């Protein structure tokens, strides 16, 4: 046999041996490929190979736990925008009118193109770039309004007053009162830190109405700018002559960036542990181990001012880190109802194609006391998970009361027109008269004196 042929034969044998070993070691991947190929060859209708593959990947990742996911396209972009707290758009918060299937402006974003153009709460978005919006899903309408900075979009607006006149189902719909606005998209900054009420200029009042010595700060989520926004709010609060307490409202907060939660805790502490993460396995593939303890740095804000952290069953993840940390450090009293119990860390892992993104559970975190936060499947109520309110400060509103509060707060948060005033009906009731949990938190400051 010629020498060249002998070499080729040896190489072919080695390749075959390596392939066989790889197949044995990674038999599941081989079976997966076999199933995919069988579907593409034999399914009775043509199958898009890319869609089939992405559906299979999504199902595989979702099967790991309830928080891991495979994200692509619009869903991926939405998550990244939420964490970045920035997106290209015109600055409108929308909701779908359930009766008429039309998008209604909940509130314009302060100092956005829509706000400067005079769009107000209650206005209806009739069309976007000539395409009617009636019956479209909210996500699709939002995607039409968002886009690259400096690009225009034409929005057909029916003002709130005219909309009320034409919504009688017995009256034929009319186009009267509809105006086209050409809005140029800008980078819209999404606020994650909010106060008690809007001032006429659209900024936040950080002192609680009816309680002039009590500061009130809500954190809606934890994103890239949360710590910066909180620092700006605390600057204004600390400039007051006297503050006898600060309410930090984390109700309904689903979490966000771990680092943002650490920075929020650090603002109120001078030393000590904030949170400890525990990886699923160590670098050598061994059992889970403790790692990366985050500690507070010197220099706390509002030193000596009592804190009350308000939570509920929807307070989760990064928000639970803050509540647990401040409670364990003795820096705050926790008021409300037991939190959700999500104590795992998800890492965002971009894929090489630039389209997909893995949101994968890679660790769990423990509170400073080293107690567990995550509520594992089947965990009983008497087990350690979530964050419990301090003794004597447990209060869970009824579903009806919670919904009334949500509606009241939504109206109260509306950005007024430039130079305008908040709705008088909303300002006629004091927060503690509407919000029993908030009232209990304010009472905690009297008890701490």
Describe this structure in words.
The chain is an alpha+beta fold and 449 residues long. The protein folds into three domains: 72 residues, no CATH class; 104 residues, Roll (Pdz3 Domain); 256 residues, 2-enoyl-CoA Hydratase, Chain A, domain 1. The chain contains 14 helices and 21 strands. Strands 10, 13, 14, 15, 18 and 19 form a six-stranded mixed β-sheet that branches. Strands 1, 16, 17, 20 and 21 form a five-stranded antiparallel β-sheet that branches. A four-stranded antiparallel β-sheet has the order 6-5-7-8. Helix 8 packs parallel to helix 9. The N terminus is likely disordered.
Give a quick set of tags describing it:
disordered N terminus; Pdz3 Domain; 21 strands; alpha+beta; 3 domains; 5-stranded antiparallel β-sheet; 449 residues; 6-stranded mixed β-sheet; 2-enoyl-CoA Hydratase, Chain A, domain 1; 34% helix; 24% strand
How is the secondary structure organized here?
Layout: H1 3-25, H2 27-42, H3 49-62, E1 69-72, H4 73-84, E2 86-89, E3 92-96, E4 103-108, H5 113-116, E5 124-128, E6 131-132, H6 138-145, E7 152-158, H7 160-166, E8 179-184, E9 186-189, E10 193-194, E11 197-198, E12 204-205, E13 207-208, E14 211-219, H8 226-238, E15 245-249, H9 258-268, E16 273-279, E17 289-295, E18 307-311, H10 318-328, E19 332-336, E20 344-350, E21 356-366, H11 399-412, H12 424-427, H13 431-434, H14 436-448
Parallel strand pairs: 14-15, 15-18, 18-19
Antiparallel strand pairs: 1-21, 2-9, 3-4, 5-6, 5-7, 7-8, 10-14, 11-12, 13-14, 16-17, 16-21, 20-21
